[in-house]
Amino acid sequence: MPYRSSLITIERHIADQQHLHPYATGAFSRLLRDLMLAIRVISREVRRAGFADVFGTTGDENVHGEAVRKLDDFSNETIIKAMRYGGHLCAMASEEAEGIIPIPDALQKGSYVLLFDPLDGSSNIDINVTIGTIFSIFRRVSPDIDQTGDMDDLTQPGYRQVAAGYALYGSSTALVYTTGNGVDMFTYDPTLGEFLLSNPSIKMPEHGGYYSINEGNSLRWHEGMQNYIAYLKDEDSETKRPYSLRYIGTAVADVHRTLMYGGIFLYPADKKSPRGKLRLMYEVNPLAMLIEQAGGLAVDGRNRVLDLVPESLHQRCPLMCGSVKDVEKAQTFVENDPISEEVRENIAASTP
Ligand code: AHM
Ligand code: MG
């Protein structure tokens, strides 16, 4: 059977792209290479799940009070181990760890920080539904290159990301990433042990036919959100409504479909959760950068996600992202929905 994807490996692609970055020193390429190794190891373990004893929980709770699954824990440890010794990072932060993950004193420090959700979609791990790893990379801002990074390095606004991406462990393992020059997708060939470029320069449609939201929360939504979802279900041939509902419950997989087919993904603020559920630094920022780089929009309801100034590592943030026309339309519905005083103050402080 002919090869559908190119024979351009991700390493070759990264090397070819280096000249696009004024700061390219090779360290960034080595950082990505180490991250790809971690992703290959996680992918192997996900594929063995069911044979190996990796389903179920560890018995511990994470920083969000959620049960830690064995594969969450394994993925977290794998990324830390793969990234700690490379000399290109000065600090890391993970959805599964409470504070900064420092680079130990004895090890060389570098110019970048890495934030990651080691295994997104925890509720889907044990039932063989798509899960993924999400990552976000910034350059350090603290000046002392020999010291471990600090909170200022890790809590920068999303527009400063130098790269963002995700790995999806689905019907195949795919890697989607951006360094600010468009979005490329690579598909893993397990027989070669290589990620090969399969979808260069992904551009999302201006509008789509899918919406993606947890409808179980609908009674908690504010009025504008309720009206918007009702609008999507109305019959209108000109705007191709009703839209179809798709909801996997793994943000990275739902956003991936949105990126490829267009439409809208929403995890909004509601009466119970004024900041929604997703985490700004580990999920919302990297997904927003990818969506924008593919020609879409990502907002928290009112503001561009990438302009928000984070207050803390683990803060949550509402997300509406997808095709430009769909997100713009959604905003017209939700613009008068109430937001909590706490969120309002944060927005006022963060508007650049
Ligand atoms: P996780 O990082 O612990 O897996 O939690 C985040 C996940 C997202 O992937 C997904 O969009 C969301 O939680 C689903 O939440 P819900 O079950 O409330 O719809
Ligand atoms: Mg997650």
What would the CATH topology of the largest domain be? Fructose-1,6-Bisphosphatase, Chain A, domain 1
Structural class: alpha+beta
CATH-level-4 superfamily name of the largest domain:
Fructose-1,6-Bisphosphatase, subunit A, domain 1
Number of strands: 15
How many H/I helical runs? Answer: 9
Q: How many individual domains?
A: 2
Which CATH first-tier class of the largest domain would you pick? Alpha Beta
What's the assembly state of these chains? single chain
How far apart the termini lie comes to: 53 Å
Strand arrangement in the largest pleated sheet:
4-3-5-6-7-8-9-10
Mean pLDDT across all amino acids: 91
Please give the radius of gyration in angstroms.
20 Å
